Amino acid sequence: MTTGTGPGSGPGGATGARGVARDAGVPGSAVRAMNTFSAADEEKRRGVRRMKLTATGLLLLVALVYALAEWASHAGAGPWAGYVAAAAEAGMVGALADWFAVTALFRHPLGIPIPHTAIIPNKKDQLGVSLGEFVGENFLSEDVVRQRLRAVGIASRLGAWLAEPEHADRVTAELATALRGALTVLRDTDVQAVVGEAVTRRADAREIAPGLGKMLDKVVADGGHKRVVDLVVSRAHDWLVLHSEDVMMAVEGGAPGWTPRFVDKRIGERVYKELLRFVTEMRDMPSHPARGALDRFLTDFASDLQSDTDTRARVERLKSDVLARGEVQDLIASAWTAVRAMIVSAAEDERSELRLRVRASLLSLGARMAAEPSVQGKVDRWVEGAAVHVVTTYRREITSLITDTVASWDAGHTTKKIEAHIGRDLQFIRINGTVVGSLAGLLIYTVARALGA
């Protein structure tokens, strides 16, 4: 039984296979694994050779029995020799037929290119396509995926796993590592540009005047602005006390040049005293008329922000001018740096509020998934939907992995490896064919003799 040739087994076959592997995107490791023989493969090949010797030995045995039975029959040994010869003859026929069938799977019997032989090397690619279609139709269908995932009970198992504190700690640590890695990979300049653009675009797309008006109206109605007024008036009073000379000199400096200096000084002192008195009264009198006027101004301004077209337009122009300033854009962009540093620090600290909250959330989620059927049902449906979407969307890509991988294998090596794995069982077909053929031949001979008698 000589080894036949098939596609890819001759010169350039392996090279062609490697080319297919590269073109199809099949990992080189998959090609090497199929085109090499491990120690386990060699052991299986030795087992196949032993079984071949056994089956061939049985064929030679029945051939010897047939020859002896025929010699005994011609020598007048009696009717029993005919029965033995018939059984041995049928056994040889069965053994030879099954040898041909088994050999035809892997090579041309006796090296003769008989049609429909050497099936595996000649039909390797078609077998890969058929295998891919079989897997796609029977394993990657929506019903099969849903039934299998439903039987597994992913939600309850995952919930029970997450409910264990050590598992929650492990997931939290892995999430922290992934978060740090993601933040490390991201370039600050890219993120800052995205953040700045997003903030600016969102601010431009939304009018802020009505919102500011509502907020200001609410603040004035609640009296929240009074503390600001108190602070401003108090600081103004303190400043006037400390800078009295500056104020009076400023008033004197603005007087006409033709007025006497003592008049300018008296006017400056008078203006300063009145200004200080006004600020002091406004500071000490909650019911000061100026405070009431300020309240009315803020109320009217809040109303204009919400309803006056001109006021709203001015606020929008002011907003655009402010956002367009480089300092504001730099401030928006620099916010990412601060946020990233804060997140990285929290992710690295095992006792940070971020990690503690994530851990608590995982424990709570695990307990709910393990105990509440409604939560289990939601999670299971989500997992099933995601799996079905992946399977139905990428079924062709998944099955093409099988097809392309099989196509990348060298035909000769593939045939030898398949024979090493299943050849031992196929040799039992030859043995069974010999035994069954002998019994069938004996039965047929017996029936024929009975009917002839």
UniProtKB/TrEMBL annotation:
<feature type="region of interest" description="Disordered">
    <location>
        <begin position="1"/>
        <end position="22"/>
    </location>
</feature>
<keyword id="KW-1133">Transmembrane helix</keyword>
<dbReference type="Pfam" id="PF04286">
    <property type="entry name" value="DUF445"/>
</dbReference>
<feature type="transmembrane region" description="Helical">
    <location>
        <begin position="53"/>
        <end position="69"/>
    </location>
</feature>
<keyword id="KW-0812">Transmembrane</keyword>
<feature type="transmembrane region" description="Helical">
    <location>
        <begin position="81"/>
        <end position="106"/>
    </location>
</feature>
<dbReference type="InterPro" id="IPR007383">
    <property type="entry name" value="DUF445"/>
</dbReference>
<feature type="compositionally biased region" description="Gly residues">
    <location>
        <begin position="1"/>
        <end position="16"/>
    </location>
</feature>
<keyword id="KW-0472">Membrane</keyword>
<protein>
    <submittedName>
        <fullName>DUF445 domain-containing protein</fullName>
    </submittedName>
</protein>
